[in-house]
Structures are given as C-alpha cells and as structure tokens.
Amino acid sequence: MLAWGRGLLRSKAPTSIKTRYLYADKVAGEARCLSVLTSSLSHGETVKNTLSSRWIPLTNRLTAHGARYFSSDTRSVEISKNENDLADKQLVDARKRYRFTRDDFQPVQTKPLHFDMIFDMTEDKIKVTLQTTLKNLGEQPLSELKLNSKELEILSVEQFDKFVPLGKEKNFVAHVQSFADPRALQYEVDKEDHFLVVKFTKPIQPGEEFVIRTVSVATPTENILEGLYFDYTPEGAPKTIITQCQQHGFQRIVPCIDTMDAKAYYTTTIVADKRYTNIITNGDLAPGYHTETGVPVFHPASEVLSVDDPSRHVLKYYNHKVNMAPYLFFLGVGTYETFRRTLEFPDGDTTLLEILAFPGYFEPADAKAAVKMLHDSVLWVMVSLGPEACEHHDERKRIYELLEEREALKAKEGPLCLGPNEEYVKTPLSASDAARLAAVRAELKELLKVWKKTGYKYTGAVYREIAMEN
C-alpha cells in the first residue's frame, strides 16, 4: 500500500483545466479505493493512529491539485489557481528527490551520428578517447551541451574546427580521417546530477553537424554491475572485463547522450592484453583485422598508442550497418573456450556463430550441441517468423527438409562445428554429392521467392553467445 501511494505522489499533474478535471476524477477514485482498503483493516482510533500519518502526503496531494471537494459521482471539482501553483511548486521540489521524471524523456534535440572510440585497456583503469559526431536538431543555436557522465574522470574536451560532414553518405572512415584543428573547450563536471556540461565558443546552428573529442578514464568495478566491471576470470588469466549498458550504463564508460533514441553508428578500437583469448565488441572486424575465414588479425599497439607496448595488441570493429542505442553497446576482453559454426541461410548468405564458454566447465560435445541449437534457432527465426508466418506452409516444410539435407552433405566435407584449437580440414565431396548439394542450394533460393518478407535475418559477420557469471 505504501509503495502504491508513493507511486501516486510521483505522478505529474496535468496542465490544462479540462485535463485537470479528468485527473482529479481519477485521483478521487483512487482515494475512494484507499478509503475502502483502510476501513477494512480496522475501525476507530486504531486506524486513525496507525494510518493517518501515512496518508497525510496523499491528502495534501489531492488538495494541491485543486480538488476542494468530490461529489458522490466524483465529477464535480472546484479548481483553485493558487492551489494549482502550489502543486507546480511541489512538483519542482519533487524533481530534486528523484533521478528521473517524465519531463526528462523528451525527443532528442542533439542527435549523435557516429562514435569513434579508442579503448586503452588495463585492469586498473580504462582510458577512452571518444570522437563524437553530432547534429543539432533543435530550432535554436546550441551554446552548451549536457552529456551524461557518471563517475568518469574527464581529462580533456575539444572541438574539431575542420572536418568533412557525414551527411547522408555515411562514409565513416573518410569522415574520421578528415578531423583536423582540434580546439580546447571549457567544460563543467556536475557530479551530483552526473553531467558533463560542454561550453561552445561559437554556438552550433540548427541543422549543423559538429564533432567533439573527449578523453576520459573509467574504472572497472567488482560490485557495480553497470558500465565496465570484472566478471569470472580463470585462474592465472588476466581479469575479465565486460560491460553492462542497459539501461544507463554507457554513461559510466564515456560522456554521451544516454537515451534510447540516441541511436548512432560505432567504430571501436580496443588495445588490450595479448593474453586474452577474446577481444570483442559490437559490429564486424574492420578490413585488415581478420582473415578470409573471420579469424582476428591483431595489430601492434604502437599503431594506436604513442609508444610501443609489447604486452598488448589491437583490434578494430565497425558497427556501420545498423545504428543502435547506447544501451546496446557491449565490449568484452576475457579468456574463453570458443566453439564456432558457419550458418548458411537459405539464400546462401553466411554468418559465423560463436559460443564463448568458461574454460573447463563444459564437455566439448555439450558445447557443440549448444552451437547446433543456436544454429537451428537463428534459421527458425528467418524461416518461420515475420509478417508471412501463417503463409507458405508447404514451402516452409520443404525448406526445412532441404536444410537438413544440405547440412548432412556439408558434414561429409568436414566438421560443422569446431572447438578450441581445432582446425577445419576439408574433404572433397564425390561428384554425385557435390551435384546434389548444388541442386539443394538452388531449390532453397527458388522456394524463398514466394516470400515478400521473411523473418529477421542476422546481418553481421559473427553472432556470439557469451558465458557470464554476472
């Protein structure tokens, strides 16, 4: 009951007179429900002594909304302007007691377009250089920018005076390469409300793109499962560091606009210990950072850092296909056993499936069975879901039959799933099996033509499932 009452107190009073009548009518009904509930608990002075103090805030709230009296049908309400002003003041005061209110969730006025991030990772501290391309969507010039920033050490804030606008081309590589003439900006750190307030020398005009560079330090934690934190680490391995950004964890990693509608594209460079078996984040490995089969190709740390560091190396990822909200960002460096299988969609497109397991916790056969279940599930989403899920029954049945046959033929060439330290050795198919495999693939493509839109088909180069302790 107390939790319900507090929830009622947090609701915001409507502004229009017509809406206030409806709101008062609603609150009156809720108050009447409270009356029934409390009267059923006890009678007389016992109820008054134990409950009256609890409902004083609610009574004040009803009065503050201008409800002078309620008729039996709760439709006649007398509105008082002075009491409405009091209600507004109480709402302003209430904002100081809660981290977020409804007014905090407005359409984004400054939209992030692209994040270019370099993570300089050690177990103690993580230094992040972030170059953010943004656009002023508001109707007024922008003289300052408030970025969510929680428990970060801010080292510097700059604005680039020269760059090629991103526009609609979305050539992120050329865009980042064009950054020039950085200029230091003034800024303030609001530790109470967790903001980095950036002051612009020249206001940003409506519709204008701009690029700022922040250098900050984040500290991984043991017990705050938000932002960067330590997860299960095998004995003798460097500490596993992973991220949790949902719902507002990205602001513990970099200064940002940390809302669900602040969708952007990402370029992420990670400098980390060579002892880690896996260094991963959103997107696909950038060109030059992988082999034809998707195996990572590490670059020396000196390419990113000003000095050489023989204990660490570099991977770069592009999340350039689909923009995403900041709460979806993930980064992980850790020690795992990786089990892989190539998934081939009915149309012939492929993606690599990976399950990252804790070393020594699983039998290889069980882990490979889990990869097969993942394989079948991703295919099922495409073939059996979507807007035409209730159509094409015969074609769908035939597709599943052909998929089973195709995988059986591919298994004759070599193992479908590989575990740690296992190499793929291909055995040529017989002429009849090779011809049949080609025919199966051709029929699958033909069957797909009856669909206008299938279920979701994963677009990335690698789809991963990761073991986590927390």
Automatic annotation (TrEMBL):
InterPro entries: Aminopeptidase_N-like_N, Aminopeptidase_N-like_N_sf, Peptidase_M1_pepN
Superkingdom in the source lineage: Eukaryota
GO molecular function: zinc ion binding
A Pfam family per the record: Peptidase_M1_N
Aminopeptidase N-like N-terminal domain span: 119-284
Descriptive protein name: Aminopeptidase N-like N-terminal domain-containing protein
